[in-house]
């Protein structure tokens, strides 16, 4: 259970700056970071947008701007960021949530099985923050917070490398720096078994598919325990659900583009959004998963099982597969 939230220096300064800029009205923003059991880490605080509504007792986010900026900021870091919560200012000393706030908070809490954080800022007369853990069904619990980069695991604040992006710029088709090239160079182990012979040019040219990676990742014990849910048939997506799925999958689509994995998205008449791998090798089995939404969560079906999908999941699968020379 969440016990403490930690701000990076950058995240808290961004929050203070936004509060000062709109000192006479409500304002707010979104927290990006990492959930790690009892401690959650806020790496970035995103401002609410260009077209949001600022009033002394009312505030509304600019969702289009937020989605754009969150994707941009996420690309700066080596480890993918997740939306872990939000904050906004209340007038005077009022540090409880309104009914409108409840609706916004539950929307964010339903994005993840562990819920979200929601912070209220008051100036009465000095600046203060009240931090809440929000869970579904709607429930609030106050949690402590602290500030300082020294409290962060170093990898949470590590930026993406110049070399990574220079390679992608100089080799836009990922012919030399893509996932296939990485696998060819490393050899490795899968589930403790030496698979170096499988990572030959000849094998990969004939057999490799992203489906190999996804299968290993989903059937790994930790992933299966955290992500597998009761089997569910996809239903037709509403406009709101389609927006949710597209927003959630953007990080993975960006990753596929960078690493040369070609995929397509198709809205199915039978329900859901199909993600299909196009750039498969001869003899390989392409991945085709159907994503859909249910109760504010994004799910997908694979191999007659249903899994909960989170932003950056497929990217994480690739990184698990190639971590430390292919160890899963």
Key descriptive features of the protein:
328 residues, alpha+beta, globular
Briefly characterize the structure.
This protein is α+β, with helices and mostly antiparallel strands. Helices cover 34% and strands 29% of the residues.
Q: What is the structural class?
A: alpha+beta
Strand arrangement within the widest β-sheet reads 9-8-7-6-2-3-1-10
Biggest beta sheet attributes: 8 strands, mixed
Would you report the number of β strands? 18
Rounded to an integer, what's the Rg over CA atoms? 21 Å
> N- to C-terminal separation?
27 Å
Assembly type: single chain
Estimate the global geometry from the Cα principal axes: globular
What does this 3D model show about the protein?
It is a single chain. With 328 residues, the protein is an alpha+beta fold. It contains 11 helices and 18 strands. It has helices at 9-21, 63-74, 99-109, 154-157, 162-170, 179-186, 201-207, 210-218, 221-227, 239-259, 313-322, and strands at 4-7, 28-36, 39-46, 53-55, 58-60, 82-89, 116-123, 127-135, 139-142, 144-147, 189-190, 193-194, 228-229, 263-267, 273-277, 288-294, 297-302, 305-309. The strands form 4 sheets. It has an 8-stranded mixed β-sheet. Helix 8 crosses helix 11 (313-322).
